[in-house]
Design goal:
alpha/beta, TIM Barrel, 2 domains, 8-stranded parallel beta barrel, globular
């Protein structure tokens, strides 16, 4: 047993993913080889990072989805590197076990391998993330190769890639039909050979994601891609009910945070107006 896996962080028997004291990129491949699933959630602040880390979530993604759920942009396209780095820095401070991955925003890496490297260096030096994620398959091979050569772990992202929503014709499932499915597999092989340590498959038909997961050596992380991928990722505000609008079909709601917050806020307002708060117990 390795030094990193000697003690389970939250009690119990040290087995598999739960036994790892600090998640590294190689652990994801180890879990794939062992047939053990792993988890990823998005997060953007120290409090949720700490909660998810202590709950045993294996990887935390500071996603460009912050554009929507933190900054209120209509799409992920407007968010900038300067807006994401402070969020990533906070998540790193809150996570002691989970692997923290920074998401490169639109326009910060597509221009050239050197642009991708410079942006990734900022995320690693200024925020302290352990890896970065970028969108694209075959077309991103030069960027992935440059980052891998420079010692920066890369998680690729293929299938539906939100930063390319206009080019893809909106939020549409990718990989339907024999030719499209072959394109997904080709992208997966390409990012693997370029040096990516894992690949996200978004909105890909389950059978296609299953085939990709079976054929590639690197771990696959599904979102709307069935349950046969090696890991799963969700946006936490969707999964735990903070978003009150429409959520994608592939989201399962595990909690109702919005209602709990609303009830608490209403109770606070009522107590202040009635002078029930602060009471004697809350007064020096």
């Amino acid at each position: 047993m390795s030094a990193e896996a000697e003690v389970a962080p939250y009690g119990g028997t040290p087995t598999g993913a739960a036994a790892v004291k600090k998640v590294r990129t190689h652990h994801l491949r180890d879990w794939k080889q062992a047939g053990e699933k792993f988890t990823m959630l998005t997060t953007y602040d120290v409090a949720t990072a700490r909660i998810f880390d202590e709950a045993g979530v294996d990887t935390l993604l500071v996603g460009d989805s912050a554009a929507n759920v933190v900054y209120g942009y209509p799409t992920s396209l407007p968010v900038s590197v300067d807006e994401l780095i402070p969020l990533a820095r906070a998540v790193v401070r809150g996570a002691s076990r989970a692997l923290v991955i920074g998401d490169l925003p639109f326009g910060s890496y597509q221009g050239s391998p050197e642009q991708a490297y410079a942006t990734s260096v900022r995320f690693m030096k200024e925020a302290g993330v352990a890896a970065i994620k970028l969108e694209g398959g075959v077309e991103m091979v030069p960027q992935i190769e440059r980052l891998a050569r420079g010692g920066i772990p890369v998680c690729a992202h293929i299938g539906f890639t939100p930063q390319s929503e206009h080019a893809l014709g909106g939020y549409r499932v990718q990989g339907r039909g024999e030719d499209a499915a072959e394109h997904i597999l080709r992208d997966a092989y390409a990012v693997q050979e370029a040096g990516a340590f894992a690949v996200v498959l978004e909105m890909v038909p389950g059978p296609v994601a299953t085939e990709v997961t079976r054929k590639v050596e690197i771990p696959t992380i599904g979102i709307g891609a069935g349950n046969q991928t090696d890991g799963q990722v969700l946006v936490w505000q969707d999964a735990f009910g903070l978003n009150q609008g429409r959520v994608p079909r592939f989201v399962k709601k595990y909690a109702d945070v919005a209602t709990a917050l609303s009830d608490g806020a209403r109770a606070y307002v009522a107590d202040v107006k009635s002078q029930a708060f602060p009471g004697a117990d809350h007064t020096f």
